[in-house]
C-alpha cells in the first residue's frame, strides 16, 4: 500500500511546497542568486568596442566652447579635437563621428561650402588621421551645417530639391574620402543618396570607404540640443517632415532601410535611438546587417538633466540605456557618453 507522505503543516508532498507545484520546480531566481551566476548567464554586454563618439568642431585654435543644452559636451577646434582623438584611442574607442559648427559667413542657400576641400570637416579628418591613424573617422555629408536655412538639402521656393541635393552630397562624399574619412554617414534622407554616393566613391577609387546609412532618421523632437551645437537651431525655416520619417511609421522605416541595402549601404543606423528600439530590432532581424543607433542629443541631455537634479542615478541610467541598444540588436552606438563609459568599463 502506497503511503502519501506530506510535509508537516503544509498538506503538500514531502520535499515540495505550493510554489514548486505551481512552477513545476522551475525557479528562475536560481540563476540570479549570486554575482557569479548572473555574470555567467548575462545575455548582452556593453564593451568599449560598441562605442562611437560624436564630436563637434569649430574653427580657430586651442579653444573649447561649452554647449548649454548638452552639459559636459564641448565644441572643439581642430587641434583640440586631435587631442581628444588621442584620448579616445587610448580608451579603446574605435571611431569618432565629426560634426561642424560652420561660421555664418560660410553658409548659403545651397550649402556650397560642403564642397570645399579645406572645410572644417575635412581639415579635422586630415589632422586626426595624421595624429591617430588607427582610429576610425565617420563623416556626414548632409548640408544642414552649411546652409543658411538649416535644412539638410538645397532649398528653392520652399521645396527641398532631392536630386540636386543628391548630386552635391555625392561630390562632398568623394571630397571627404579624399581627406581620409573611413565611413560616409549621410543623414539627409534624400531618395537615392546611398546609390549615388556608392557610385561616386567607386568611380573616384574609394571602393574601401564604407557607407553607414542613416537608414531610418525620424522627424523627431529629440534633436534640439544638437541643433544648438552645430548652430542651426535658430536658422531652420519650417520643419523636416518632407524628408525625415514620420515617428508613427514602422513599416515605412523598414522599406527605407531595404532601399539603402539594395543601393549599397554597408551599415544601417537608426536615429534617434531609445524611442525607436523596436525599429532597431526589426532592422536587425530583417537584414542581419551591422546595425547602429544614434543616442541623440535630446536623449543625452535628459539623462544629464535628471541626474543633475538628483532624480536618477545618472551613471546607472547611462549604462542601462546603452545596454538596451545592445539588447535590441545594435552592433554599436553613437553616444556622447562614449569617453565616460569607456573609462568606467576600463575600471571594471
UniProtKB/TrEMBL annotation:
Q: Please, which domain of life does this record's source organism belong to?
A: Bacteria
Name the Pfam families for this protein.
ALAD (PF00490)
Residues bound to Mg(2+) are: 256
Q: What catalytic reaction does the record list?
A: 2 5-aminolevulinate = porphobilinogen + 2 H2O + H(+)
Q: Which GO terms describe its cellular component?
A: cytosol
Q: Name one GO biological process term.
A: protoporphyrinogen IX biosynthetic process
Which SMART domains does the UniProt record give?
A: ALAD
The protein's matches in PROSITE patterns, at most eight in alphabetical order, are given as:
D_ALA_DEHYDRATASE
EC main group: lyase
Please name the catalytic residues of this protein: 217 (schiff-base intermediate with substrate), 271 (schiff-base intermediate with substrate)
Single GO MF annotation? zinc ion binding
UniProt keyword list: Heme biosynthesis, Lyase, Magnesium, Metal-binding, Porphyrin biosynthesis
Pathway membership, UniProt: Porphyrin-containing compound metabolism; protoporphyrin-IX biosynthesis; coproporphyrinogen-III from 5-aminolevulinate: step 1/4
Keyword Repressor included in the entry's annotation: no
The UniProt record lists the EC number as 4.2.1.24
Q: What does the subunit section of this Swiss-Prot or TrEMBL entry state? A: Homooctamer.
Q: Which family, according to the similarity comment?
A: Belongs to the ALAD family.
Protein name in the entry: Delta-aminolevulinic acid dehydratase
Which organism is this protein's natural source? Georhizobium profundi
Q: Which gene encodes it?
A: hemB
Amino acid at each position: 500500500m502506497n503511503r502519501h507522505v506530506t510535509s508537516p503543516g503544509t498538506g503538500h508532498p514531502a520535499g515540495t511546497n505550493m510554489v514548486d507545484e505551481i512552477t513545476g520546480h522551475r525557479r528562475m531566481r536560481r540563476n540570479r542568486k549570486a554575482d557569479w551566476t548572473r555574470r555567467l548567464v548575462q545575455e548582452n554586454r556593453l564593451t568599449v568596442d560598441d562605442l562611437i563618439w560624436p564630436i563637434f568642431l569649430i574653427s580657430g585654435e586651442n579653444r573649447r566652447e561649452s554647449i548649454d543644452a548638452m552639459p559636459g559636451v564641448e565644441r572643439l577646434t581642430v587641434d583640440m579635437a586631435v587631442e581628444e582623438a588621442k584620448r579616445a584611442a587610448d580608451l579603446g574607442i574605435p571611431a569618432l563621428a565629426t560634426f561642424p559648427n560652420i561660421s555664418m559667413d560660410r553658409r548659403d542657400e545651397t550649402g556650397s561650402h560642403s564642397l570645399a576641400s579645406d572645410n572644417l570637416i575635412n581639415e579635422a579628418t586630415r589632422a586626426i588621421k595624421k595624429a591617430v591613424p588607427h582610429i576610425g573617422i565617420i563623416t556626414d555629408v548632409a548640408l544642414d551645417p552649411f546652409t543658411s536655412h538649416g535644412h539638410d538639402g538645397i532649398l528653392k521656393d520652399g521645396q527641398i530639391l532631392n536630386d540636386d541635393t543628391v548630386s552635391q552630397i555625392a561630390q562632398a562624399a568623394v571630397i571627404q574620402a579624399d581627406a581620409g574619412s573611413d565611413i560616409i554617414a549621410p543623414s539627409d534622407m534624400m531618395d537615392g543618396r546611398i546609390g549615388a554616393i556608392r557610385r561616386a566613391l567607386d568611380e573616384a577609387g574609394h571602393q574601401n570607404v564604407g557607407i553607414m546609412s542613416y537608414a531610418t532618421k525620424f522627424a523627431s523632437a529629440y534633436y534640439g540640443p544638437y541643433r544648438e551645437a552645430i548652430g542651426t537651431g535658430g536658422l531652420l525655416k519650417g520643419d523636416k517632415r518632407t524628408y525625415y520619417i514620420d515617428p508613427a511609421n514602422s513599416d515605412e522605416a523598414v522599406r527605407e532601410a531595404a532601399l539603402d541595402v539594395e543601393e549599397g549601404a554597408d551599415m544601417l543606423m537608426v536615429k534617434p535611438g531609445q524611442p525607436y528600439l523596436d525599429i532597431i530590432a526589426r532592422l536587425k532581424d530583417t537584414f542581419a546587417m551591422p546595425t547602429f543607433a544614434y543616442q541623440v542629443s535630446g536623449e543625452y541631455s535628459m539623462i544629464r538633466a535628471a541626474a543633475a537634479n538628483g532624480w536618477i542615478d545618472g551613471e546607472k541610467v547611462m549604462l542601462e540605456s546603452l545596454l538596451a541598444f545592445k539588447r535590441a540588436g545594435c552592433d554599436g552606438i553613437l553616444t556622447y557618453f562614449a569617453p565616460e563609459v569607456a573609462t568606467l568599463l576600463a575600471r571594471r
